[in-house]
Amino acid sequence: MPKIKAVLFDMDGVLIDAKDWHYEALNMALSLFGMEISRYDHLVTYDGLPTKKKLEMLTLERGLPEQLHHFINDIKQEFTFQLAYAKCRPTFNHQYALSQLHSKGYRLVSCSNSMRKTMDLMFERAAIKSYFEFYLSNEDVKEPKPNPEMYVSAIRKLNLSPDECLILEDNENGIRAAKASGAHLLTVASTQDVNFENITTRIQEIERAL
Ligand SMILES: [Mg+2]
User: How much is the average pLDDT of 50-71?
Assistant: First the structure.
């Protein structure tokens, strides 16, 4: 009978409450060109997409000149770094969940639409980097989420089958990627839902049903 052997975590909105930092950083960069986006639009349309994708959408929808993408992207990453460095802190619930899962032999991975440098910084600041066997960023795939490529290649790298894996995701783009990979899913509403009890309850539920 297959058992859950690995837990794959999205980063933003799951392990790191970075939604506001991404929003603020992008807006700080866009405001240089009078192109701010509203918090509502960000939550409904842009959240969870890589910055490059968000900029492409702004070009299509609002005529942001394409020549500015590279520049805005660079400034946005710089602002994200500053905000993450100042605001990212270890969270007891996450420390506890990851250390317990790790000591029980679960293999832990993170898959995020962020850049590798951002993942390094946030996981270091949150003091959870050492729990992961590896993580995949948007630089490790051709297509970011909602394409399932990231989860498919992580599961392949783990040398497991999708039904031995549980994915934690918080938003539409990530959930679509997770479902399409064939793995099991735990949808969380916020980083506070990511705790040892919720994860083990979901694993037991899956294993009972198999
Ligand atoms: Mg997310």
Answer: 93
Domain ranges of the chain: 6-16+89-209, 19-87
DSSP label at residue 12: B
User: Distance, CA 28 to ligand 1 centroid (Å)?
Assistant: 21
Please state which CATH number belongs to domain 19-87. 1.10.150
Q: How far is the CA of 206 from the centre of ligand 1 (A)?
A: 22
pLDDT at 210: 67
Query: 49: CA distance to ligand 1 center in Å?
Result: 9
Ligand 1 centre distance from Cα of residue 32 (Å):
27
Residues in contact with 44: Cβ distance below 8 Å, sequence separation at least 6, in sequence order: none
| Calpha distance 177→153 (Å, rounded) | 12
Average pLDDT over residues 124-151: 97
Residue 160: how many CA atoms within 13 Å on its side-chain side?
24
Ligand 1 center to 66 CA (angstroms): 26
Phi, psi angle pair for 168, to nearest 5° = -105, 125
What is 6-16+89-209's CATH topology? Rossmann fold (3.40.50)
Query: What is the distance between the alpha carbons of residues 135 and 114, in angstroms, rounded to a whole number?
Result: 11
* CA atoms in the 13 A half-sphere facing the CB of 71: 9
47 Cα–ligand 1 center, Å = 8
Supply the pTM of this predicted model: 0.88
* Residues around the ion ligand 1 (C-beta < 5 A): 10, 12-13, 48, 170-171, 174
